Amino acid sequence: LNMQSSNKWRANKLQSNKWRKIHKSRQSPLVPIVSKRKYLSVAAGWDAYLPHEKYKSDGITARRIELLKLHLLQKQSPIKCDEIREKQFYKVDYSVLLDNEELIEKWPDIKLFIKENPELFIAYLGVALHQLIDENAKLSKAAPPGEDVPVEELDFPLIPMLHPRVINYEPVLHLKHLKANCYGKFVAVKGTVVRVGAVKPLCIEMGFNCLTCACVQLIKQIDGRYTTPTVCSSSECNSRSFTPDRNNSRNIDWQIIRLQEIIVDDQKEGGRIPRTVECELKNDLVDSCVPGDIVTVCGVVKVNYTEDSQKKGSSEKSLYSLYIQANSLTNAKGRAGDTNLQIGIEFSVKDLYAIKAIQAEPNLLKLLVSSLCPSIYGHELVKVGLILGLFGGSTKYFMDRNKIPVRGDPHILVVGDPGLGKSQMLQSCA
C-alpha cells in the first residue's frame, strides 16, 4: 500500500512538472511598464488617460476633447512640444478658459463639470495635449514632397504621460469651509506652508509573477494602496499565489506638505488654533515650496483613514480625514509685487495717505516702537529687536569669489522673568 501511494505521488509530481514546462513555453511575454507603442491613430493617448472608456469618434467625450484642443491652440500660452515632452506638464489658466466665449457656448456647463468631475476633466486635457503633440510630431516627421512613405514606418518620439496643471482656479476656499461636502470636488485653498515632508517613491504600477506558471501581470496601485491580482491571467492556470516583481514597477515622486490658514484681523476667532490641511504633491510638484511660503493649491479633495480607525479592534471603522491631492501649486514667492494680494490684504487710498504721513515722520523708529504692543510699557530694546525681525534684512554674500549666501532674516529669542509681557509682545508681531 505504501509503495502504491509513493508511486502515485511520483507520477503526479512528474505530470505537474511536465505541465509547468508546457505553460512556461506558452506564457505571454512580459507586459512593459511604459508602453512603447506609437500613438498614430485619431484616438492618440486615449488608452493612457481614459482606460475605462471606449473611444467613439461621434461621442460627447471626443467632441469635448476637440473643443479643448481648439482652446489650447488659440487661447492658452504657446505649446512648445519639446519643452512639454521634457517637463511632462503644462499650465492651463482657469480664468482664460472661462473667457473663451466659443467654448462656453458649445460646453455651457464646463464650470460645473470641472468642479464636480475634476479627474475626468484633467484626463480630457491630457488627451487633448497628447494629441496636439502627436500631430506636431507627425508634421515634423512628414515625408519629403514627392515621396510616399507609410505613416507606420516613420519614427515618432515617445510621448510620456503628461500632467495638465489648472491654475488661477476660483473661488479660493477658506479652510473652515473645507468639509465633507467637498469630497471629490475641485477646490483651491491658500495658506502658509508649515511642514514639508521628505520626497518618497510612490509605486503606481507593479508587476506580479505567478508562482505556478510564472506568468506576469501588471496591476495599478490606485492611490498608493498595495493591490495584488485576484487570479492568474492564464486561462489554464487560475492560481492565486503571486510574488511582487519590484524590478518591473513604475514609481513617481511623492511628498506631503501641511498648509495653515491665513487669518487676518477681521477673521480672528478667540480660543481657536489655526486650521491646517495636508496636501499631496506628485511628480513635478515636489520640492516646489519650503516652510514659510504662502502658496495656493488647486486639487481634488480626497479622504484617508485616520490613525484611530487603523488600529486593530477599534470601534471607529469609518473615521476619515480630508486631504487635497494637488493638481497645481502657485508659490507667492515667485510673483514679484503680488505678495499683498496673496495674503488677502487690500489697501485703500486713505491707507496710502496714512502710510505717506508715517513715512514723513522725522523719528520713524521711535514711532514704530511706541506703536508695537502699546499695552506693555517700556522694553524699548526688546521692541526694537522685534521690529527689526519683522522687517528683516537683505541677503549678503560672505565672499564674492565663492558667493556664500548669508541669510538676512534674523532669529530672535526673548528671555525674561514671568509676567513681563513676552507672550503679548510676540503675539502682536504674529
Automatic annotation (TrEMBL):
A biological-process GO annotation: double-strand break repair via homologous recombination
UniProt keyword terms in alphabetical order: ATP-binding, DNA damage, DNA repair, DNA-binding, Helicase, Hydrolase, Nucleotide-binding, Nucleus
Superkingdom to which the source organism belongs: Eukaryota
Entry's EC annotation: 3.6.4.12
GO molecular function: ATP binding; hydrolase activity; single-stranded DNA binding; single-stranded DNA helicase activity
Entry's transmembrane regions: none
Major location category of this protein: nucleus
Domain MCM C-terminal AAA(+) ATPase: 364-430
GO cellular component: MCM8-MCM9 complex; nucleus
Chemical reaction(s) catalysed: ATP + H2O = ADP + phosphate + H(+)
Signal peptide region: none
Enzyme class: hydrolase
Family listed: Belongs to the MCM family.
Name of protein: DNA helicase MCM8
